[in-house]
What does this fold into?
Amino acid sequence: MKKITKITIVISILLVSILCFVRWYNGPSRGVEIFEDEIFERDYHELVKMVEFLDSLEDVEDVHIDSTDGTMLVHYIDDRIVKDVVISDEDVLSTVSALMKKGYFNITKHGGTIYFDRWKNLFGCFKGFAFSADGSGELDIQFLIGRMELDKTDWYYYISDYEKWRVMN
It folds into this structure.
């Protein structure tokens, strides 16, 4: 009887571990996505400030911000790439710092899309919020596998995952 109980406990622990791993690997559930709507509403004004700043940059094709050190990586239209372009606007620096403290780790402008990476897992799945700057609704995000329209015009929740994208394409 004791042997059956030990086997049952081991199998139960194994099944729970597998279930937890699968849920973690697949990322947030729908319940968490509802929470993401709340996060989007909470951070909306800061996200809009960053969109306005990135849209105001002239002669810029791509921008990437991944720290609060006051610099960004910029790819100019003339094909120059400059690693440490200084953000001189204190209000923008404050907004970047606030967003990074709230869990955002990449702010990127690519083509007609400005996106904010907020969640990731070890397997290359990124999730966050994106703005379609050209109003087309098309998101220019590498390995995009899903998007959900949000309540604000031209705003989306997105999922980017190389492995799933590779299998789908």
Remarks:
- The helical segments are 2-26, 30-56, 90-101, 162-168.
- The two ends are 52 Å apart (CA to CA).
- Confidence is low (pLDDT under 50) at residues 28-32.
